[in-house]
């Protein structure tokens, strides 16, 4: 942190700081810098709210120190959008979520669940904001024109809040998205300067639309007469709500044939159109949403791949590493129930291992520091063995009754982890 503050204070002066050479700093160290920077901003904003309240001779209360979200499960997206719009000044406070009509207190678990459910709804194909590409297994921004791009800003805010509050999200964006998100890494003061525009090439397109990228590669490698055999112009077509619309890649593009001489220009303009120009309004709203929360010089230390890891964590699960780092309360790691538990879990297919991780931590992704950073704990639940396991996602804790057989443990565990949405108190 001293290095970071030195770098912030002296900028591009001749005073040395490791932050001038971010490639030598590990992603774990960068995460610590961003977390501490976020915490300092949170404290500063909360302190200012307190001072403002006292100076107006109003009685302070604890709620003013948090970004309090009250949402209904049945109206999750609209309620979240309304709350974040109304409380824009509070985005840099610690996040706290309440589901209307539920008794749960948010010690971290409700926040994780809010993120998970909201992301799941927004990225659903029926919602129309993002298109899922099966070949690349990732989402990309829908190019459909609309009157209001505020929901794209909401997704950006969500990603920013996740980084700011150290929560990993199950979002499948291609690497190109994070490159655009850092273009530029600090929001320009001049609003007329374009944001989210970066240089793109056929490799970037291949990560989203591999079939189209392959077709364009074939065009570039074609040895025959491109103009006569392909009969294409500098015009592309897109379907929007059942209507085919045409767009010129350059002025008068519908009258300019693609030839052997200009095909490289055509391919580059086409890729730029798909990844930059056709989604500019959607992505700029997303960019401003993210940076409205994560406005920090610490972002300048990150490369796009590192932003992706901070946002999404790693999808690679190492359950042996989780076993090695697990803490126990009421059990010893040699107890029969615990031995049964790990035999069952290590034998699970990947989808059930992810469900277990989601059940106990609120996310099925692994944080930057690996499984050890989860501080996973298994506690003995002195209840009937007819009961299912219980989880406290706030503390990454699994409460496990002392099941007498491996078969019984496996059956109860699968039922528990497969039916884990909602929050209730007995």
TrEMBL record:
This is Probable E3 ubiquitin-protein ligase HECTD2. The keyword Repressor does not apply. GO terms for biological process: protein polyubiquitination. The gene is HECTD2. Pathway: Protein modification; protein ubiquitination. InterPro entries: E3A/B/C-like (IPR044611), HECT_dom (IPR000569), Hect_E3_ubiquitin_ligase (IPR035983). E3 ubiquitin-protein ligase which accepts ubiquitin from an E2 ubiquitin-conjugating enzyme in the form of a thioester and then directly transfers the ubiquitin to targeted substrates. It catalyses: S-ubiquitinyl-[E2 ubiquitin-conjugating enzyme]-L-cysteine + [acceptor protein]-L-lysine = [E2 ubiquitin-conjugating enzyme]-L-cysteine + N(6)-ubiquitinyl-[acceptor protein]-L-lysine. It comes from the Eukaryota.
